[in-house]
Amino acid sequence: MHEGGRRVFLKTAAGGAFAAAALYGSAAEAQSASGSGALRKSLYYGMLPGELSVEERFALARRAGFEGVEVPTLEDSALLAEMKAAAAKTGLVIHSVMNQRHWKYPLSSADPATVRQSIEGMEISLHNAKAFGADTVLLVPAVVNAETSYQAAWDRSRKAVRELIPLARELKVTIAIENVWNKFLLSPLEFARYVDEFESPWVRAYFDAGNIALYGIPGDWIHTLGKRIVKLHIKGFDEKRREFVGLLDGTIDWKAVRKALTGIGYSGWVSAEVGGGDETYLRGVSADMDTIFSG
After folding, report:
1. Whole-model pTM?
2. SS3 234
3. Is 139 in contact with 194 (CB distance < 8 Å)?
4. Does 213 score more than 80 pLDDT?
5. For residues 231 and 95, what is the distance between their CA atoms, to the nearest angstrom?
6. What is the rounded CA–CA span in Å between residue 239 and residue 253?
7. pLDDT at residue 33 above 70?
8. In this predicted model, what pLDDT tens digit does every residue of 183-206 receive, in sequence order?
9. Computed from CA positions of residues 44, 46, 47, 51, in that sequence, does the dihedral angle turn out positive or negative?
């Protein structure tokens, strides 16, 4: 890049950082107010033993030391009502919904019918979140593959997400874009740009520290994304073996992650997304999270 172009890029990047701070700052402060500056422990619903009733699963999560849970999209109204009742009885907070259609029906598809299925799935997810009192829906925005180029994934997914913003605004539920192994949004600068160009506080980042460990430094991504981060997933990853492991068994520098989160003023939910197990196992995951975030 020639020097003049470099100056323009740096000026634009700096301007984007200031704009992002203004756009997401107030939303982040409002969301974290209930957390009083603390990190709140959560887990994904699929980690809880499937042989138990919903209420028994939620009660187990509470006994294991978790305050909240992220649930999948529910298209069964009876199950949704059962989860609401279980949350109210046990005190386990349903804080987020993980959209379920984005892999089978990616927003980046060239097929309009597939995209429509995906959008309808997100609409259901957003309404689920509103019903639960949750403030986010996790979305994998695109999948790059042999049939879908990077540029096509970018353009198609952005068009679809823009279509969803009015409903997110109406329901006051944030669309939280997650970084996953989908060959898309492969740098923190690009992820930040993707989020910023929506120019909406209702589109932010759901950062997964474990997913990024294969090709990035979690603390670096956290610093770059800053106030764009609305929720956090954690899992262990071993770079040498190139596989997911227990939270404390891999190569992730959790001290650096904790420092980065402090640096951006993050407070709110941190959800474990690891393998499931019984109460003894879940207590161990909870204790590992305490070790990671308490130093």
Report:
1. 0.89
2. strand
3. no
4. yes
5. 10
6. 11
7. no
8. 999 999 999 999 999 999 999 999
9. positive
Question: HSE-up of 289 (CA within 13 Å, CB side)?
Answer: 25
Are the beta carbons of 229 and 205 closer than 8 angstroms?
Answer: yes
Q: Which residues, 6+ apart, have CB-to-CB distance to 154 below 8 Å?
A: 142, 184, 194
Of the listed ranges 7-16, 105-114, 164-173, 214-223, the one predicted with least confidence = 7-16
Three-class secondary structure of residue 18 per DSSP: helix
Which single residue is written with the structure tokens 């919904």? 97
Q: Please classify residue 220 by burial: count the beta carbons closer than 10 Å to its beta carbon, then call 0-12 exposed, 13-18 middle and 19+ buried.
A: middle
Length of the chain: 295
Cα–Cα distance for residue pair 115/159, rounded to 1 Å: 10
Rounded-to-integer distance, Cα 117 and Cα 100, Å: 11
> Residues 63, 279: contact at Cβ < 8 Å?
yes
Tell me the per-residue pLDDT of 92-147, one tens digit each, with 9 for 90 and over.
999 999 999 999 999 999 999 999 999 999 999 999 999 999 999 999 999 999 99
CB 20 within 8 A of CB 228: yes
Give me the pLDDT at residue 29, please. 47
Distance CA 162, CA 212 (A): 25
Only one residue has tokens 């981060």, namely: 229
In the numeric block, which tokens belong to residue 33?
Answer: 């107010």
Q: Which residue has the tokens 């060959």?
A: 183
Q: How far apart, in whole angstroms, are the C-alpha atoms of residue 161 and residue 144?
A: 16
Burial 69-83 (b: 16+ CB within 10 A, else e): bbbebbeeeeebeeb
Greater pLDDT, 241 or 16: 241
